[in-house]
Amino acid sequence: MDPEGLAAAATPAKLGGYLSSLPRPPAHHHTGPARTVRTTLYDGHRVVVTTTYEITVDGRPIGAHLGVDPNGNVHCHALPAYQFLSALDAVKALIDNYPDEFTDPAGPGPDAGGHGGHGDHGGHGDHGDHGHEHGGG
Amino acid sequence: MAAVIRRNILTDTAVRDAYTSGVNLLKREHSSFTTADFGIAGPAEPVRTYDLFVIWHVMAMRTAVPPGGDSNIRNAAHRGPIFLPWHRVMLDLMEANLQRVLGDPSFGLPYWDWTVDSALDLPSDSDFWQPTCMGGSGSPVSDGPFGVDPANPQDPNAFRVRIDVNSSLALINRPPRGLRRALGRDASNLPSAEDVTAAYDSDPLTGNPNLAVYDFAPWDVDSEGFRNRLEGFNPFGLHNLVHVYIGRDMGLASSPNEPAFYLHHCNVDRIWEGWMRRNGRHYLPDQSAPAVLLGHRLKDPIVSPLGSSATPESVLDSTALFTYDVLP
Questions:
Q1: Global pTM?
Q2: Suppose B71 and one of B58, B64, B164, B203 were both cysteines; which one would form an S-S bond, judging by CB atoms 3.0 to 4.6 Å apart?
Q3: Any CB–CB contact under 8 A between B175 and chain A?
């Protein structure tokens, strides 16, 4: 890479101008329950494994989506460097690392109406008031 | 312009102090942009130069490869071959901005060799986490150059996190707050020197021959090869483990909010450079790979303000820009 070109780009105007020109991501990264589809061919058979997580904390759906990596570990994009053997462990880590979203269990959080900034559309729909997981890692 | 030398932050107090000073200068420098320019909901707040890098990292993480795909599978900066080149460009631009605000074109971004700290009884006792360097744990951190002094919580010059993400990965506008860390809480130790040695070991008798190859199909977190070993998905460790060890702000998509981010990634880049010394400056996939990998191939532009001049191929040999004092 050209050193002079790099030095010329090292201004807030260059980086900010570039970032502001990028397409705007949607306000919400995910919609609906987290769903992972893994496929493989084995001995001539086509295998499809679909995993769906529907998770609530304190009765409210969470905004973060959990998925399953090809190697079977649970992954949460909101914690990009983490890997989990259990979706329960993933949710515990979310609670620890997003303290502004998981405040007083007895009262409304800072994003009242749903964890993870989904307050304006009520989260992931009506999944009842108890968390459960389908499948696993 | 001569190449700078990147040095160990724990053995060079001058570069340590320059780094902490430069970060705080970038933290105070108004970029002329506001949060509204990046589609961040809420009142338009000024964005500081340092925080532009946080926005860049989050946007790249939300950019799926291929377009329309799932950024959880592979995105423009992570979970695929582009991981090391993308972060090299990010470090280069941070280094160049630090040179600018410090008025010192000879400044080289320091690295944090966390393998040394992993050998301590308690890695958080390292000099790295003392008030003279990064400061320690806390929510918020209350000591060091990036802490909020409990005796002066309204200090307008104190380090503040101003760009946040929520757990849906949306950039959000919250009141400025102090930096958060929980050293050793989510992972009890750092990667060791033996872990790095093992990542280089392609001897079929003692290691894995695939580690002599940069990356393999399916070019994701399930891949064999050196990139995924260093990124830390297969097996879990190295780069990823350091993020988890530090935790809190370092564990989120907005992890460049944590000033240790650049020192950690500089060490990751140094380990990559050490691998290229052993195996040559080669990269995969090349342009024969399908377009579904657009953004991860050898000659594809990296998602950066440098346009087509920054590709994996163009950053493989960066010795015109920097060298490391010591390679692993």
A1: 0.91
A2: B64
A3: no
